[in-house]
Write a structure and sequence with these properties.
The chain is mainly β. The protein has one domain: Jelly Rolls (Sandwich), CATH 2.60.120. It has strands at about 15-20, 20-25, 35-45, 50-55, 55-70, 75-80, 85, 90-105, 115.
Amino acid sequence: MIDMKEIIKLKETNKVANSEKCVAYEYLFGSGKTSLALIEMKNRYPDRGFAINKVFEEIIFVLNGKGRITIDGKSYDLTKNDAVMLKPGKKYYYEGDIKVLTFTSPAFKVENHEVLNE
């Protein structure tokens, strides 16, 4: 049986350091249908190359700060309250001094996310 949660406090999140300058706090509700993460970044993710989501859609919502996301070679400036929809299979990276919420459907699984060092 899956442990389903209704409320998760920040102190209960799964903290993941994607790099020295990019930290994610995963809110693991347990449904498998969606997931949520708070990401604080100062610099670039991934550090070099691109990331790609193999099967899940990801919505990135900017809470504060400024940055830029590059998707399949096209760059977009990001500021507070902007949102981005990443479809599966798109190569991307983002950079800046920025705090975002990310929502994924189905839920994020590390094996469905890849960093390409191109």
